[in-house]
Amino acid sequence: MKWRFFKALLRGGDPDAERIYRWHITARKASNAKLGIGMDGKPDTDRYVSDCHRLLVSMRANGFNPAYAIPIDPDGELLGGAHRTACALALGIESVPVKRYEQKAWAPSWSLEWFKDNGMAADDFTRLSKDFDECMTSPR
Question: Are 136 and 67 in contact (CB under 8 A)?
Fold first, then answer.
């Protein structure tokens, strides 16, 4: 979702990217609330979208700031930095710094089943699967 949205911000031509990104943020917040897991306190999806625009402008101009390594758990799961990671992928940045922590990821993983269980539309789910394959195989 995030990678697709950043690609759309860079290149245009994907009118569904923002809609699906907003759906994901809303669904993730609701899912986490049911589990008693708080998120970052941003009031609505407008704030997420504007923050994505700012992040893209910054990373496009300055690259990935090594002072803000992506935190990962012992299994390599993200502890934070999903937007920075997606932005770096969309920009074709070949490597980013990571910092390994002993704590485990705080939220359930976003498996394909999570998207189905949270009501993602069938067409969007098909596109998500294609996006995943493209993201994982595209040259960096």
Answer: no
User: What is d(CA 129, CA 87) in angstroms, rounded to the nearest whole number?
Assistant: 19
Taking the domains of the chain in order of start, what are their residue ranges? Answer: 2-137
Amino acid making up residue 117: D
Q: Are 45 and 25 in contact (CB under 8 A)?
A: yes
Q: d(Cα 20, Cα 104) in Å, to the nearest integer?
A: 28
Angle, in degrees to the nearest 10, between helices 2-11 and 45-62? 60
Residues in Cβ contact with 37 at an 8 Å cutoff, skipping those fewer than 6 apart: 106, 107
What is the pTM for the complete model shown?
Answer: 0.83
Long-range contacts of 114-120 (CB under 8 A, 24+ apart): 114/31, 118/27, 118/30, 118/31, 119/27, 120/23, 120/27
pLDDT at 136: 72
Summarize pLDDT for 20-34 with one digit per residue, the tens: 999 988 888 776 555
Question: What whole-number distance in Å separates Cα of residue 118 and Cα of residue 139?
Answer: 31
Residue 1 CB: number of other CB atoms within 10 A? 23
